[in-house]
TrEMBL record, chain A:
This is Anti-sigma factor antagonist. Residues 3-114 form the STAS domain. InterPro entries: Bact_StressResp_Reg (IPR051932), STAS_dom (IPR002645), STAS_dom_sf (IPR036513). It comes from the Bacteria.
From TrEMBL, chain B:
It comes from the Bacteria. It holds the Pfam family HATPase_c. This is Anti-sigma regulatory factor. It comes from Streptomyces finlayi. Residues 43-135 form the Histidine kinase/HSP90-like ATPase domain. InterPro entries: HATPase_C_sf (IPR036890), HATPase_dom (IPR003594).
TrEMBL record, chain C:
Keywords: Phosphoprotein. The keyword Phosphoprotein applies. The gene is rsbR. It comes from Streptomyces finlayi. This is Polyvinylalcohol dehydrogenase. It comes from the Bacteria. Transmembrane segments: none annotated. CDD domains: STAS_RsbR_RsbS_like. Residues 155-270 form the STAS domain.
Length: 125, 140, 282
């Protein structure tokens, strides 16, 4: 009965733009949907836009890290874009640093990063 | 609660029985934080702490309630939130406040992380007695 | 404290010879002003306080901290605050109140019951004098804390070094309050200027201990989660030695000896991205 976060496909990239305050179940659903879509579409990469998110707690933080790991196993890369300064400061204080997650300032830069990674797969994070 | 004076309006109580209630509780905390004039960063820290604690109440306490209010103390104003449950309680408080320790499926940052995000933090719990966590974030 | 006969006499005296006493009071206070306030301002201030004092004494009681004296106290708070801002010392401020004793002394000691009234009044004025000193100190503390806040803002500029590169020259000691300000300014700056690189220069930071390193680390991690790279530059030889001696882990954070070297690195990375863009690879 809960809403699902839509997963859009733009070329070879899957785009998830989170626009609402996330309930835990939506987070779990998104994780499942994305894994399925990566396999179905053979996507080069996933961009998760969190510009609209006012908070990221440990549950959402863990989801971001898990999606990054899952997509890597499935041969594609995940970039999280648009984290707000206040959210970044809060995550650091909370003790989360999302070590395995690629990040970019804006959606545009995130898409660029995925294209670049596909040109040069050994590029450092 | 005795240490602080409740300002403006009375204490608001939000039952926590579903994950939707956790969202409601943190939105209510945000509304109070904005009204109290907490900076954006402090609002974000408090709401994130409320989210962690609300989830604990639901997942480990089997549900309970959040009580929130605007409080004052010695000329400063802040937002106070208390999360209560009648669940199994925590046998070892020190251990529960250690980074990375978890009794469930979480990352073990809920309690210890929430404590770092707020100014005042009080944890009361005993096996079979339920758990109560009270936090305050003061406006600078 | 009960109102004895002495007080009644004191009241009569203060009421009937009001103008004379206020003038004497203003004269004695004016001597200490050294041009910081005009005599007219002082006359108005003291006139109001005198009236409020008289009103409170009429209502009875000599307890300076009691309810009757609330108007007197609020006037004294205003006086202390103004004096503190104008640079008067606590002694000078308290003397404003104490000098009323001298003015009344001559008039009171002359009458038979005067000595007792005088002592009662002196006790009250002593208490009110101390009250002004407390308020004076409180105001000074407020001034100091607001200055500290301003200094915090002033001492943490975020400058644009190049298109896409921000610089944060840190000068002075890094504590957690300061780190919070630096972090907030830097992260917002990254967003506002769409910069992918930030260089935090610590040439002006006198010492780096575990805690300072921890603060720097948090800033770098927060920037990274937003999608920007940080380089820490300006690590002087003795600081490098302390870092190693203390066993401080900077992890995978890029550090450089000089701002120039850090800028060189950041430019190289930006160049690489833009040349890829030119070749149409992005």
């Amino acid at each position: 009965m809960t809403d699902r976060v839509p997963v859009l496909k733009i070329g070879q990239i899957l785009l998830v733009s989170i626009q609402t305050d996330l309930e835990d179940q939506m987070v779990l659903d998104l994780q499942e949907d994305l894994s399925q879509r990566i396999v179905d579409t053979n996507a080069q990469g996933v961009v998760i836009d969190i510009t609209a998110l006012e908070i990221v707690d440990s549950f959402v933080g863990r989801m971001l890290a898990t999606i990054a790991s899952i997509s890597r196993v499935l041969g594609s890369e995940t970039v999280v874009v648009g984290m707000r300064p206040a959210v970044a400061m809060t995550l650091v204080e909370l003790g989360l640093s999302l070590p395995g997650v690629r990040t970019a300032l804006t959606l545009e830069r995130g898409m660029e990063q995925i294209k670049r990674l596909n040109q040069n797969p050994s590029a450092p994070r | 609660m005795k240490e602080y004076d409740v300002a403006a309006d009375a204490v608001e109580t939000i039952p926590i029985t579903t994950s939707g209630d956790v969202v409601k509780a943190r939105q209510a905390v945000r509304t109070l934080a904005q009204r109290t004039g907490l900076s954006l960063v402090n609002q974000t820290k408090l709401v994130t702490a409320a989210s962690e604690l609300g989830r604990n109440t639901l997942m480990y306490g089997g549900g309970g309630r959040a009580r929130i209010a605007v409080v004052t103390q010695g000329g400063r104003t802040g937002v106070w939130a208390r999360f209560e449950d009648e669940g199994p309680g925590i046998p070892d408080l020190d251990l529960a406040l250690t980074d990375g320790w978890t009794s469930g499926s979480g990352m073990g940052l809920g309690l210890s992380g929430a404590r770092r995000l707020v100014d005042d933090f009080e944890l009361e719990s005993a096996p079979g007695k339920g758990t109560t966590v009270s936090v305050v974030k003061w406006a600078r | 404290m009960t109102q004895g006969e002495g007080s009644a006499e004191l009241l009569d005296l203060m009421e009937s010879r009001r103008d004379e006493f206020v003038q004497g009071w203003v004269r004695s206070v004016s001597g200490t002003l050294r041009g910081r306030l005009s005599a007219a301002e002082v006359a108005q201030e003291l006139g109001e306080i005198y009236n409020a004092l008289l009103g409170a004494l009429k209502q009875g009681g000599l307890a300076g901290r009691g309810d009757h004296f609330s108007e007197v106290r609020s006037l004294l708070i205003e006086l202390s605050r103004n004096r503190a801002r104008q640079g008067f010392t606590p002694t000078e401020t308290a003397l404003c109140v104490f000098s009323l004793k001298q003015v009344l002394e001559e008039a009171l000691v002359a009458s038979p019951d005067g000595a007792r009234s005088y002592l009662q009044l002196a006790r009250l004025l002593d208490d009110l004098g101390l009250f002004t000193v407390e308020e004076h100190a409180k105001t000074r503390e407020e001034i100091i804390s607001s200055q500290a806040e301003q200094l915090l803002e002033l001492s943490t500029p975020v400058v644009k070094l190049w298109d896409g590169i921000l610089g944060v020259p840190l000068v002075g000691t890094l504590d957690s309050a300061r780190t919070q300000v630096v972090m907030e300014k830097l992260l917002q700056g990254l967003l506002d200027s769409n910069s992918t690189h930030a260089i935090i220069d610590i040439t002006g930071v006198p010492a780096v201990d575990t805690q300072v390193a921890q603060h720097l680390l948090k800033t770098v991690v927060a920037a990274r989660m937003m999608g920007a790279q940080c380089i820490i530059s300006g690590i002087r030889p003795q600081i490098a030695q302390t870092i190693v001696a203390l066993g401080i882990e900077f992890g995978d954070i890029a550090t450089k000896a000089t701002l120039a070297a850090a800028l060189h690195d950041a430019l190289a990375e930006i160049d690489e991205a833009s040349s890829l863009r030119k070749e149409g690879l992005l």
